[in-house]
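Table 4 source record.
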Amino acid sequence: MRISKSTRVLAMVVSATLVAVAPYTQVPQAQAQAQAAENFTLVVLPDTQMSAETWPELFRAQMQWVDNQQSARNIKYVMHVGDVVNKSNELFQWRNSKSAMGLPTDDVPYIIGVGNHDLDAGTASTTRTTVQYNTHYPRSTFTALPSFGDTYPTAKNDNAYHTFRAGGVDWLVLALKYAPSDAEINWANQVVSAHPRHNAILVTHAYQNGNTRDSNGNRLWNNLVSKHANFRFTFSGHYRNSGKISQQGIHGNTVHQIQADYQNGTERETQQLHAGPHLQRGRRQPGRQDLLTISQPQYDG
């Protein structure tokens, strides 16, 4: 599907172009190898619920852009921050989302942090059940991926981790369900601890509102993210806002925590994050992708 100027206005893609981020424990020779590696792109999808409900053609155009740009931008992974659909009890919304997302492939695999709207109707503040989500995005959909790691609980796709290699280093992407429980956070800690040489990314639905973490974000920061030397990023949505927090964990590693949920079809212009702590944000502008560029930052340790 050709993406016209008008359809790109509502194709809410946030993409991150990264250059060779050295893992915390790398030796100088490996650092040099990583710095010489290729640029690559991670695509972060904010809440697509309104597209799944009302504008399915725009959802498809959004994902067609990813497919079209895979080679030119060297897209390695797609990370959906949740609220794939708006009403989980409406079958057509799941069908619309599947029509857009398709099946994950080796070329552009994806992972989803289940949002509150993806949970079974009426359970977001109680049991957080995922019958509908697991019907349409079951664990079996992802297990054939070379990057697939595992899920929690084992038989469900509520929480998952995948691993991949890009920019000369190894990456771990961890997706946690909306408002994760203590058991889910404990599982996540075990996963990150088992991958100390992977740069870790957390994908979860509700974590921060602009530049301020919410209660979920504070729990995740204090009990997971800040505790590990290899965390590099968190990505989230949920709030109709956008923002970034850069903060050091207890080991001195800087974690860039990035949130976006546009839902009105407007996208920000290019963002660039260099080796220093500053993020250069462009104005919000229709028809542009949101780019985050990281240039060979050096990590102490």
